[in-house]
Amino acid sequence: MRSPHFEFADAPRYPKPVKERIPLLVGGKGERRTLRTAALYADWWNAWADAETLQHKRQILRQHCDAVGRDPDEVSCSTQAFLCLSEDSALQREFIARAGRRPILMGSVEAVTDQVGQLRDAGAQELIIPDWTYESLSQRDDELDQFITVVAPNFR
């Protein structure tokens, strides 16, 4: 059975879009395809990366931008890392086990502030802190509150 379809001519579209086009985010770290795609099309590029990896990948993105004739500053950059604001080594070991191989901001407020600064210096313009590794909502709330009140003001 064939589905009916309809054609419209000059149909009004409301509400009107806020922007002419939706910004495109490309996520990933693949140096040949993903970063080339980001150079060609992305408004924003995102990857799970520590500072050293992010700096390297940003350089590859710059090379791709140069190759396609695009200003690399037109592609904004974000990254993400889990947060463990604790100097307790047992808690840190447990957290590392939950986080797997993904980047972690870990240690004292001073250490985490330094790590965030390294990400900023490597080119991150936005930092995303996922919250699914916390074992309790109160732990999550305490650490994220401390991050936003003590660490984040250093980067505003």
Structural notes for this entry:
By secondary structure, the chain is α/β, with parallel strands linked by helices. The chain folds into 2 domains: about 60 residues, no CATH class; about 80 residues, no CATH class. The protein has a 4-stranded parallel β-sheet with strand order 1-2-3-6, covered by helices on one side. A two-stranded parallel sheet has the order 4-5. Helix 2 links the parallel strand 2 and strand 3. The radius of gyration is 21 Å and the shape is extended. The relative contact order is 0.12. The mean pLDDT is about 95.
List keywords for this structure.
extended; 4-stranded parallel beta sheet; 156 residues; 42% helix; alpha/beta; 5 helices
Query: Structural class of the secondary structure composition?
Result: alpha/beta
> Helix and strand string, N-terminal first?
EHEHEEHEHEH
Distance between the termini: 60 Å
Helix content: 40-55%
Average residue-wise pLDDT: 93
Question: What's the arrangement of secondary structure elements?
Answer:
Blueprint: E1 25-27, H1 34-41, E2 44-48, H2 51-68, E3 76-80, E4 82-84, H3 89-99, E5 104-106, H4 109-121, E6 126-128, H5 137-151
